[in-house]
Amino acid sequence: MAKIERFEDMLSWQKSRELTRRVYNLSKSGEFARDFELRGQMRSASISIALDQSYITPVEFENLSSNAIEVGRLVSGFMGYLQKSDLRGNKFKRA
User: pLDDT higher for 42 or 35?
Assistant: First the structure.
């Protein structure tokens, strides 16, 4: 794993930003643009809302879903790495 000096260096962070940008871009037009409540939920959660087929195409849903799964795997892998490493934040420093 490459050395991480800033949180922006983490692939999981980069991919989650990409996912959020894609959700924001998708929610700017079409049916989303007129459904303010759903658009707000989508933008707040980015990946946790169930998408209705009337708002996006199956291809768009599949693309977003694949991106969300990839981000989840990356975050999970990074969490596993941190749990096995000797790196500890101030809260968990051994006295």
Answer: 35
Tell me the residue range of the domain where 37 lies: 14-82
Can you tell me the distance from the alpha carbon of 68 to that of 15, in angstroms, rounded to the nearest whole number?
Answer: 9
Model-wide pTM > 0.90: no
SS3 1: coil
Long-range contacts of 13-18 (CB under 8 A, 24+ apart): 15/67, 15/70, 15/71, 15/74, 16/46, 16/71, 16/75, 18/67
What is the spatial distance between Cα 69 and Cα 9, in angstroms, rounded to a whole number? Answer: 20
Does residue 76 fall inside a structural domain? Answer: yes
Cα–Cα distance, 33 to 61 (Å, whole number): 17
Measured CA to CA, the distance from residue 89 to residue 53 in angstroms comes to 43
Number of domains, the chain: 1
Q: According to the model, what pLDDT value does residue 10 have?
A: 75
